[in-house]
Amino acid sequence: MKLTTKAMFTAVLAVAASSAFAAGGEIAVIVKSADSNYWQNVNKGATAALADVKGYTMTFQGPAAESDIAAEVNMVENAVNRKVAGIVLAASDPDALVPAVKKAWEAHIPVVIIDSALSDSGKQYYQAFLSTDNEKAGEMCAQALISRVGQTGKIALMSYVAGAGSEVGRVGGFRKYLAAHSKLQVVGPFYSQSQMANALNQTTDVLAANPDLKGIFGANEPTAVGMGRALAQSGKAGKVIAIGFDGNQDLQNFVKDGTIQAIAVQGSYQMGYKGIQTVVGVIEKKPPPKFVDTGVVMVDKGNIDQPVAKNVLY
After folding, report:
1. Residue range 203-256, pLDDT digits in tens
2. Residues spanned by CATH 3.40.50.2300 within the chain?
3. Beta 128-131 vs 154-159: how paired, if at all?
4. Could you give the CA distance from residue 242 to residue 240 in angstroms, rounded to a whole number?
5. Do residues 213 and 219 touch, judged by C-beta distance below 8 A?
6. Buried b (16+ CB within 10 A) or exposed e, 137-158
7. In this predicted structure, which of 6-15, 104-113, 218-227 has the lowest mean pLDDT?
8. Are 77 and 100 in contact (CB under 8 A)?
9. In this protein, which residues make up the domain named Periplasmic binding protein (predicted)?
10. Does domain 5-132+268-294 have CATH number 3.40.50.620?
């Protein structure tokens, strides 16, 4: 008698849960880049969650750059080879990480995806997805921009890694909302590869080439920081309306001094914290939620010192 796909998947999960639960062991948290404050905030959340469970250790790693997809694939494969108890993964590419996640599934190692979705071909190989609703967050950024620049004129779009799951949803939501609710002309997108220096140079060039620019959007942390520095260095701070994404200290300072008018801040700490909770739950035979929205808060000068902002800023 042939097992249905669902029955086979349940059987695999049961084997993974029973064996890993008996042994405890290592949970590998693998992110897009180990260096940025955003991913370090994920690390803080994961570390805090680990303190609440017994019998597990945690490793945290990521490539030096978000564009180094091959390095992240190797990290997942190495985690599978050393037979970790579970993996929490922020995938830098929706397609390239699928084979590595499939290897984890075949090895009976549960995987929880955070931040950026895998493509549809990978959905069967992981147990839960925790993320910002990036399309909704992109819409919020477009709304914040339109409310400040109006419905006509020219704005620039500074993005990060083309095709990354979070980028597709976030920038897609931003552009869709702009098209539906304004006649704003979009310059770009420009891709920084999540490198602050690239974003600074690209923004400097865009500002010089478009003296009539009314607004600009920086779609992730290093991109928004580079954007803010370019605005300050070019004397355009406060003259070109800027909306950023994520909430490190640099971006908070830009909001306070008026260089950037608002930042959309994700629950990165929650991704780490709930990521560990969720993967431990799978190991210990608790049915996981398929999707957890970890939220986003629009932070500006008016609320940056209030609890709603302080709870997500880092």
Report:
1. 999 999 999 999 999 999 999 999 999 999 999 999 999 999 999 999 999 999
2. 5-132+268-294, 134-266
3. unpaired
4. 6
5. no
6. bbbbbbbbbbeebeeeebbbbb
7. 6-15
8. yes
9. 27-286
10. no
Residue showing tokens 């750059």: 65
CA distance 228 to 258: 10
Which residue has tokens 């800027």? Answer: 242
CA 21 – CA 51 distance, rounded (Å): 17
User: In the β-sheet with 25-30, what is the strand arrangement from edge to edge?
Assistant: 56-61, 25-30, 86-89, 111-114, 128-131, 291-293
Give the total residue count for the chain.
314
Per-residue pLDDT, averaged over 140-167, amounts to 97
Q: Yes or no: say if 248 and 291 are a contact pair by the CB < 8 Å rule.
A: no
- pLDDT of amino acid 21: 40
Helices (H), the chain: 5-23, 37-50, 69-81, 98-106, 134-149, 165-181, 196-209, 221-234, 249-257, 268-283, 307-310
241-245/262-266 β-pairing:
parallel
Cα gap 149→184, rounded to integer Å:
9
Here the tokens at position 191 are: 């891709």
Question: Does residue 263 have a pLDDT over 80?
Answer: yes
Phi, psi of 218 (to 5 degrees): -105, 115
pLDDT of residue 280: 97
Condensed to tens digits (0 to 9), the pLDDT of residues 11-54 reads 444 444 344 344 479 999 999 999 888 999 999 999 999 999 99
Across the chain, mean pLDDT equals 93
What's the rounded Cα separation, in Å, for the pair 86 and 264? 30
* Amino acid at site 277: Q
**Pairing of the two strands 296-300 and 262-266:** antiparallel
Is the previous residue joined to 211 through a cis bond, with omega within 30 degrees of 0?
A: no
Domain 134-266 fold: Rossmann fold (3.40.50)
